[in-house]
Amino acid sequence: MDNCLFCKIIKGDIPSTKVYEDEFCFAFRDINPQAPTHILVVPREHVASIAEAGEKLSPEALHALISAIGKIAAQEGLNNGFRVVSNCGPDACQSVLHLHFHILGGRQMADQMA
Ligand code: DGP
After folding, report:
1. Phi first, then psi: what are they for 35, rounded to 5°?
2. Which of 17, 47, 70, 102 has the fewest CB atoms within 10 Å of its CB?
3. From atom 20 of ligand 1, which residue's Cα is the shortest distance away?
4. In terms of C-beta density within 10 A (0-12 exposed, 13-18 middle, 19 or more buried), how is residue 80 classed?
């Protein structure tokens, strides 16, 4: 999608620190990290959020996204655990309308999720 920030990052039109890519996914470091490790995993295909991912993405792409999260966590040495967050819509403060999973790790997370 032409005016989507994450589509531009996937295409390389906007620079990012890539940590992983495959046929279906792209992952890069968050510009405003909220933990020692903070990575965004996104599908190459534009979908706005997880609310429409099940309908719009192929089973292969959905599987690749979940697999990528595990591979990246291992690659980053998050052996003591990590948190995965996908903000969806205004109530969750989603600011970029291209589905993304935050991988947060490298410190003890708060007990409360929100
Ligand atoms: P969310 O609020 O869940 O939509 O998260 C969007 C995230 O995207 C937020 O943590 C900051 C990150 N972000 C925004 N613009 C850029 C950018 O240009 N580059 C990178 N690497 N991350 C960005």
Report:
1. -160, 165
2. 17
3. 31
4. exposed
Q: Which atom of ligand 1 is nearest to the CA of 28?
A: 21
The set of protein residues with a Cβ atom below 6 angstroms from ligand 1 is: 5, 14, 16, 28-32, 40, 87, 93-96
Per-residue pLDDT of the chain (114 residues; tens, 9 = 90+): 889 999 999 999 999 999 999 999 999 999 999 999 999 999 999 999 999 999 999 999 999 999 999 999 999 999 999 999 999 999 999 999 999 999 999 999 999 998
CA atoms within 13 A of residue 22's CA, in its CB half-sphere: 15
Indicate yes or no: pTM above 0.90: yes
Q: Confirm if 25 and 10 have CB atoms less than 8 A apart.
A: no
User: Which helix (H) or strand (E) element contains residue 105?
Assistant: strand 101-105
